[in-house]
Amino acid sequence: MKKKVIKNIVFLFTLIVLLTGAVPVSAASQVKLNKTKITLNVKKSYQLKLTGNKKKVKWSTSKKSVATVNKNGKVTAKKKGTATITAKVGNKKYKCKVTVRQPVTSVKLNKKSVTLKKKNATVKLKVTVGPKGANNKKVKWSTSNKNVVTVTQGGVVKAIGNGTCIVSVMATDGSKKKATCKVTVKGLPKSSNTGGSGNGGNTGTSGNTGKKEDAIAVNCAHAWQPQYKTEATYDYITMSARICADTSGNFNYQELQQYRKNGIYVRTEYNCACGHVFPNHDSYATHVHEMENIGDPRSHSFSSYDVYAWRCDCGKVFAPEIGSNEAKFGNQSTLRGYNPCYDQYCDHAIATGHNYVPSIPVKCKTGETKTLTGYKCSKCGATK
User: What is the pLDDT of residue 3?
Assistant: First the structure.
């Protein structure tokens, strides 16, 4: 009787376990990818793993031009964009979103060496960062010796003292790509006193050198006066400038080019051939992927445009909305339109009397430098 009761208890317990699902979790329910989202630089790879699985896995990518995956799950980044990597086991799919970034591959300067011969003399170095599609093109400028030259984050080098140093510019995206320029400063006046005591500090003889004035100066108790050459110094200062329309509403082309060069960059828009507009490449790529999934037969090629905004000198910015076709410049540097973003700025400018300021660096006179050229006697006119 006792054994029968025990058997019944075991049977009931087993039945409860089966009915309530309180069984150990199967291996299949534990299957998952080690990553569901990764970011890679172009040409870099990452090994995806499907853990908790012993069955055959079929790997695939949604966009081979952006990222590929081999039969073992190794993902390789090809070009800037987004793609989805899928691991398929039976009827189940496990996905990982891959974002590919384009790092900086080159940093170049327009000059390898430069010489400055005046105090506070300046030169603007121009940097080119490649490739064109790099995600982050920001750079950082530095000088190896601030006592010789200084450099702004705009690449303007200023002479401080005699000597030689290296001006460097490096990409900030972590690629460590950089370029250098050797800067030599010479010919600046030395601070040491070249004169002596007595009679105006004459340290040499005023003997007859054959000059006409020496006939007078030979018996003169000289009163030497220093002679200087005065020259203006310049620097690049941010000045206010306004883009105006003439009476017929036409814009000055050169001013528009300056606006494109120094305006406020807002974003790069991607116009899909199907008519949709996207604020960045990732959203455009997602759109194309979705259209491919539903078998949309239309073309989804794109054209991209840099979008700029109007800025008032009071600090207020009038930025165009996505797809509004305002303040856009394409690959040919052509203006595509301003309204109503420009009209909003005009209304504001008329009401406040403010001007648009594109922050154009202008070479301006900042002072003067004096260079000692010699000495002249104030009595007889002799020089040395």
Answer: 60
Give the pLDDT score at 264.
64
CATH number of the domain within which 159 lies: 2.60.40.1080
**Residue stretches of the chain with pLDDT short of 50:** 22-28, 192-217, 237-262, 331-339, 356-362, 364
Task: Enter the DSSP assignment of 30.
Answer: G
What span, in angstroms and rounded, lies between the C-alpha atoms of 219 and 17?
127
- Is the same domain home to 68 and 128? no
Residue type, 9: I
| Structural domain boundaries, residue 61 | 30-101
Residue with tokens 């604020």: 279
**Measured between alpha carbons, how far is 344 from 337 in angstroms, rounded to an integer?**
14
Same domain, 334 and 254: yes
How high is the pLDDT of residue 22? 47
CB neighbour list of residue 149: distance below 8 Å, 6 or more residues apart: 116, 143, 157, 158, 159, 160, 165, 167, 183, 185
The total number of structural domains in the chain stands at 3
Asked if 148 contacts 171 with a C-beta cutoff of 8 angstroms, the reply is no
State residue 77 phi and psi, 5-degree precision. Answer: -80, 135
Residues β-bridged to residue 179: 169
Predicted local confidence at residue 61, as pLDDT: 95
Structure tokens at 164: 């030689």
Question: Please, which residues bridge with residue 222 across strands?
Answer: none
